[in-house]
Amino acid sequence: TPPGMDRPHLAKGVVRYVGEPVVAVVAETLGQAQDAAEMVSIDYDPLEPVIDLDEALADEKLVFPEAGTNVIGTAGELDDSLFANCEVVVSKQVLNQRVAAASLEGRSAACAWEGEKVTFWLSNQNAQSCRDELMANLGLPQEKLRVITPDVGGGFGAKIGSEQEAALLSLVSKQVGKPVKWVETRSENLVAMTHGRAQRHVVTIGGRRDGTVQAYRLEIVQDVGAYPRLGAFLPVFTQMMASGVYDIPKVESRAQTVVTNTTPIGAYRGAGRPEATAAIERAIDLFAAEIGADPADVRRANLVKPEQFPYQTPGGMLYDSGEYVAGLDSVLDAADYASLREEQAKRRADGATKQLGIGLASYVEITAPNNTEGETGHVEIRPDGSALVLTGSSAHGQGHWTTFAMLVSEQLGIDLEKIEVVHGDTDLIPKGVGTMGSRSLQLGGTAVHRAAVDVKDKARKLAAEMIESDEADIELTDGKWQVRGAPNVTVSWAELAQKAEDGLAADVHFVEDRPTFPFGSHLAVVEVDVETGKVDYLRHITVDDAGVIVNPVLTEGQRHGGIAQGAAQALLEEVSYDSDGNPQNASFADYAIITAAELPSFELLTMETPTTLNPLGVKGIGEAGTIGATPAVQNAVVDALSHLGVRHIDMPTTPERVWQSINQA
Question: Does the UniProt entry include the keyword DNA-binding (predicted)?
Answer without folding.
Answer: no
